[in-house]
Amino acid sequence: MLDQSRTDALGDALYNALKSGKPTPKISVLEPESDIEDAYRIQLRMLQRRLDAGDSVIGKKIGLTSRAIQDALGVYQPDFGQVTKTMLFEDGAIIDLSKLMQPRLEGELAFRLKEDLMGPGVTTTDVIRATEYVTPCFEIVDTRFEDWQIRIQDTVADNASCGVFVLGAAKADPRDLDLSLAGMVIEKNGEVVATGAGAAVQGSPVMAVAWLANTLGELGIGLKAGEIILSGAQAPLLAVTDGDHFTCEIAGIGKCEMRFAGRAMV
């Protein structure tokens, strides 16, 4: 296990990369013997720097839930990160690429909770009962490292590679849908570029949220009423560039849309 001073230094380096737009060396290179526990401690340090600067946590994200994303990054287990107020954009937003470093886009389903969830022992039935509504969303993932050739400790330390996210205005009651079967279609500039279904996310987005609640519960952390939970990508990562317009539609729920402007930092 890395000592606290080293953990803090690596978390500070990630925060500085976030603010400056200048990549930092990978954890897996600097500390090849580091493990996932070390990585989450680094993530918490990076998060604390954001909170100290005035940001606030509004939910969680689950990453690396689908085989398509795992294959793309060569990382074969789920992880989680925190989503904060400054990461949130509303449906129809224009995202400034100059604020991001190496962005890629994912389409997924977001859950808004109306009740707390505290694992272990949380079931899919518990997740459905605790959910106020679900909505389509885009997560724009990003890396603060030199490139996307990362290992599990890199993405975990880097807040599960979260950049920003766009939350759809369309809402649905998860009791009215089979979220494992609900199909997703992503269009880029009017053309279909990706499709998927909820079953791509650990069998169902509901199962992914239950996994998160139980994993965090073992650490003494609960999911809170009012939090937004990003359940994981249902389709492959997509490249983005200046002027791109994206829509994400999930059957039975509706659409989310967004546009990019400017150029990425690196």
UniProtKB/TrEMBL annotation:
<feature type="domain" description="Fumarylacetoacetase-like C-terminal">
    <location>
        <begin position="101"/>
        <end position="260"/>
    </location>
</feature>
<dbReference type="InterPro" id="IPR011234">
    <property type="entry name" value="Fumarylacetoacetase-like_C"/>
</dbReference>
<protein>
    <submittedName>
        <fullName>2-oxopent-4-enoate/cis-2-oxohex-4-enoate hydratase</fullName>
    </submittedName>
</protein>
<dbReference type="Pfam" id="PF01557">
    <property type="entry name" value="FAA_hydrolase"/>
</dbReference>
<keyword id="KW-0456">Lyase</keyword>
<dbReference type="InterPro" id="IPR050772">
    <property type="entry name" value="Hydratase-Decarb/MhpD_sf"/>
</dbReference>
<dbReference type="InterPro" id="IPR036663">
    <property type="entry name" value="Fumarylacetoacetase_C_sf"/>
</dbReference>
<dbReference type="GO" id="GO:0005737">
    <property type="term" value="C:cytoplasm"/>
</dbReference>
<dbReference type="GO" id="GO:0008684">
    <property type="term" value="F:2-oxopent-4-enoate hydratase activity"/>
</dbReference>
